[in-house]
Each structure stands twice: as structure tokens, then as C-alpha cells.
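Form 7-S
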Amino acid sequence: MKNFFNPYSLLAIYILIIVNFNIINACYITNCPWGGKRSQPIESLLENPRQCRKCASGLGTCFGPRICCGPDIGCLIDSKETNVCKFEDVNSREPCMPYGKQCEKVEYGRCATSNLCCNPDHCLEDLSCNYDEDLQQDEGANIYYDDDEKELDMKLIKALNKLIAKKKQSNLENSSKKNKDSYRPKYENDK
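Output:
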């Protein structure tokens, strides 16, 4: 029992708690737990919700951590354009509301593009989503995407690409070391 209270164990527990808070903190307004982020009353969030972050160089809006949709680009799922949506999901302290009228093909869905209903998890075809009537008149579809946000998005994408490249390089180096060791001839003196 004494080993449990040593400084290393307490540090490990502290780090796990911090990581868990960061992981469970993120949500889009459609899938937040009751009370919303930071225990805000859900009524105040619905009265004046914050718009979700722009993605795809301002051509789309984040509908979830892996979904970027826009009237001119359709919906991009798990692509490099959705990296900013992952950032929004993890680092945002308050929920956001994507544009579009509510649709019923998916739970908590909103019309993302013509004939497409999306929620933070996935999209399905929905003929009730009509681009000309629903999306064009929606205020959320015309949100200003300023240069600072574009610059931040580009920096984030570059940083993520560098991180991915480093990870791939590290994996290649590790696999080549393993391959070299496995093909090395064994001699009697080797232990």
C-alpha cells in the first residue's frame, strides 16, 4: 500500500485525470449531455448558440469531429479538411450549432447540403433538405470567415501534417530495424 502513494503513482493518476477531462470535455450542441459544456443551462445554448468552426478553407462548416459540409463542396468525411473539426471538438470549451434546418433522417440531424442530412456522427440522404429553400436563407450559411481563422486553420493543418509525417517516419524506422534484426545471420557467439 505504501507504493501506491509514491510521487510517481500520484503523478500518473494526476495525468490520467487531466487527459480524461480533456477527452470528455468536447461535444457538439446536438450531442452534449444535459446541462451542456461547463454546466451551462441548455436553454441559453439554444437561444444564442455559437456557430461551428469553418473548414475546407472557409467553404464548409464542421458538423462533427470528422465531418465538414458546405453547399458548394458537399460533405467531406475523414479527410484533411476535417482536421480543424477535430481541433474544434477537442479544444472548444462551449458547444456549437451547425447551420441548416432540422431534418429527421438521422437523430439530431441538420440539412448540410442539398438532399443531405447530417449529425456529428454521420450523414444520410434526405430529400426534404432542399438547398435553395433551406440553406440559402439560413443565416449560419453566411458566417464571415476572417483571415485570422484561415491562418490558424492553415497552421493547424501544417502542424498535423508534420506530426503525421513524423509518426510515419518513426514507424518506418522501427519496422526497418526489426527487419534488419530478423534477417541478420546468427552466429555461435551471439547471445
